[in-house]
Design brief:
- With about 240 residues, this protein is mainly alpha-helical.
- It folds into two domains: about 5-75, Orthogonal Bundle (Arc Repressor Mutant, subunit A); about 85-235, Four Helix Bundle (Hemerythrin (Met), subunit A) (Up-down Bundle).
- Helices cover about 70% and strands about 5% of the residues.
- It has helices spanning about 5-25, 35-45, 45-60, 90-115, 120-140, 145-160, 160-170, 175-180, 185-200, 205-235; strands at about 65, 70-75.
- Strands 1-2 form a two-stranded antiparallel sheet.
- A hairpin with a 3-residue loop joins strand 1 and strand 2.
- Helix 1 packs across helix 3 (about 45-60), helix 4 packs antiparallel against helix 10 (about 205-235) and helix 5 runs antiparallel to helix 9 (about 185-200).
- The longest helix has 30 residues, at about 205-235.
- The mean pLDDT is about 85.
- This is GntR family transcriptional regulator.
Amino acid sequence: MEKPKAAGSMAKETADKIIDYIIKNQMLPGDKMPTEAALTESMGVSRSTIREAIKILSARNILEILQGSGAYISPRRGVPDDPLGLTFIYDADRLAIDLLDVRTMIEPQAAMLAAMHATDQQCSELRGQCSLVERLIRSDTEYEAEDIELHKKICEASGNRILINLSYILHSSIKKTIIATSDALRDNNTYIYHRKIVEAIAHHDPISAYNSMMCHVGGLREYIASKIAERQKTSE
């Protein structure tokens, strides 16, 4: 006689079935999942199993639970919170340099693709987001989250789905970069180059978009590298 499955095993199996449902229906970030009752009926499991399965998928950033509203496809697209294990790399300045090196390899290309493929709507959103970051910088207000959002929108405008997923990983470096530079470049790098990048994209100028992003990310890298070199010289 076959033994009944453990509750945890049943929840994981149901979570896999929900993923199959999402893929089969080609659901996109922001799409709402069927209700618990509908999933219970279609998958032939108890409501408590459905709830556990949804919790598993929420922890994996596949679903997002909005209290009182239901479960939605997460904009994180299943990307883990710290897939590169950055939490346990303790040299903050060196880590910021390493992340900027990777961003230098990827983000100028993303900006170039965005200049080639961005829709009018995306260009309008980029300009609005850029203006928001500028207002926050001018008013000396926390701007990190909106800065990250701007870079995400550039990746989205590229039309490349892998770049969109990578943006969630790479832009964890924005906070580390702000700390590593003591936010000293907010006016003569961030403020200026954000606008140059966005305008190049809006004018569908891929070369300018590429070069402006390279200057933006490269300038941040050089500042931190010179800071590390200066510190090493003083300690000798």
